[in-house]
Amino acid sequence: MLTLLHRHILKEILISTGFAMALFIFALLMGNAIRDIAELVAAGKLGPLLFLQLIGLLIPYVAAYALPLGMLTGTLMALGRLYRVAAPVLLIAFCGMVAGVLVNLHFAPQSRVAYKQLMRTAVTDNPLSFIEEKRFIHEFPGYVIYMGDQQGARMQDFWIWELDEQKRVKLFLRASEGEVNFDPVANELVLTLREGTAEQRDAANPEALGALPDKSLFFGELPIALPLDQIFGERGGGQLRTKYMNFAQLISRRGEALAAEAAAGSGLSPERLELQMHLQKNFAMAFSVFSLAIFGVPLAIRLKRGESHANLGIALVIAMTYYFLMIMVSWLEGQPALRPDLLIWLPNIIFQSVGWWMLYRAARH
Fold first, then answer.
1. Measuring CA to CA, which of 132, 142, 311, 364 is 20 to 30 A from 167?
2. What is the pTM of this model?
C-alpha cells in the first residue's frame, strides 16, 4: 500500500515528467521536418487536415528521444523539491522503459512508415508541391535543386547541382523553365528542364572551374529522374530501410543474414551488423529511461535545488552527455571487429554504475 509520501512523490513525478516530455516533444517537432511541412501549408500545397495527420505521425518517432529526457528532467524537478528518494521513481522509470521498448521497436517505425506513405501520396497526387520556390531542396540524394519562381503549373529559373559521392559538384544545370510529372511505373518524379545549359566538371578535380567554358552545352529539353524510393524509406525492389523496420521485421531480416553467412561460411556481415546495431540501439534507448532515472535520483538529492529552470538545465547537460556517448559508439559502426552493436550499451552501463554508486553513498549519510 502506498503511503501518503509515496502518493505525493508519484504525483510530482508524473506531472513533472509529463510536462518535460511535452516540452521536449514540442522542441523536437519544431525541427526541420515540421518547418518544411509548415512551409508547404503556408504555400497552400498541403491542407490543414493533412498537416495535422503528418504531425500526429511524427509524435511517436520523436517520443523515443523525449521519453528518457522527460524521465530525467521530471526526476530532477520533482525530487529537487522533495529532497528525498522515493520508490515510485524507480517504478515509473521501469514502466517508462517498457513503454520505450514498445515505442522504439513498434509504434515509432510504424508511424514513420505511415508518415512517409502519407507524404508519398501527397507528392504523387500533386508533384508540384514537392519542389517549392526559393528553397534549396536536398531531399533527393545526389542533387541540390533550386527553383526561383512559379506561376501556377509553370516553373521557372532552375538551378541544379549534381553531386558525386564526396558531395562535390560534378554537373551544374541552369534552365529557364521546367515541369514536374510523376511516373507511376518507375515510381519517380520526372523533372523536365527546358532551354538551359549544362556545365560538366572534371571528374578527377571538380573544383577546377577554369575548364568550365570548354565543357558547357546548351540543351532544348532535358529530363531528370528523381526516384521516390530514395527519400521515402525504401531500397531497390521496395525493400524497407533498416531504420523503418519494426521488431519482427528486424528479427526476420537478421535471420536471413545469418542464413546467408552460414551458406557462405563467412563471419559477421555488414548487413547483420547494421541490423543488430539498430536493434540494440533501440533497446538501449528504451533502457536509458531507467538508467537516467537511477542517475537522476541521487543527483537531485545531492544538489538539493528547488528551482525548476536550474534542474531543467542540469537535465539537458546530462542528456546531451548521454546522447554524445551514443553517437561516439555509432561512429564505430564501420569497424565490426570492435562490436559496436554491443558497445552501444556502454552509456547505460556508465550512467547506471555512477547512479547506483551515488545512491549507495547517499544511503550511508
1. 132
2. 0.61
Asked if residue 6 lies in contact with residue 91, where contact means CB atoms within 8 angstroms, the answer is no
**Nearest to residue 85, comparing CAs of 294, 357, 266, 352?**
294
What are the Cα distances from residue 274, in Å, to 7, 253, 281, 312, 334? 44, 11, 10, 34, 9
Q: Write down the residue that cell numbers 558547357 correspond to.
A: 216
Of 152 and 176, the structure prediction assigns the larger pLDDT to: 176
Residues 257, 271: contact at Cβ < 8 Å? yes
- Where do the H-state alpha helices sit in 234-307? 247-264, 270-303
Distance CA 151, CA 138 (A): 22
Among 136, 99, 122, smallest CA distance to 51 is for: 122
Cell numbers that stand for 286 in this block = 528504451
The three-state secondary structure class of 46 is coil
- Is the pLDDT at 346 greater than 90? The verdict is yes
Which of 17, 139, 112, 14 shows the shortest CA–CA distance to 57?
Answer: 112
Question: pLDDT tens for residues 20-49?
Answer: 888 888 877 776 566 667 666 665 666 778
By C-alpha distance, which of 75, 91, 98 is closest to 15?
A: 75
In order, the DSSP letters of 183-231 are: ETTTTEEEEEEEEEEEEEPPSS-TT-GGGGGGGEEEEEEEEEEEESTTT
Q: What is the full DSSP assignment across 301-359?
A: HHH----HHHHHHHHHHHHHHHHHHHHHHHGGGG-GGG-HHHHTTHHHHHHHHHHHHHH
The C-alpha cell at 266 is 563467412
| Phi and psi torsions of 3, nearest 5° | -80, 170
Contacts with 49 (C-beta within 8 Å, 6 or more apart), sequence order? none
Distance CA 209, CA 201 (A): 7
Dist CA 205 CA 202 (whole Å): 5
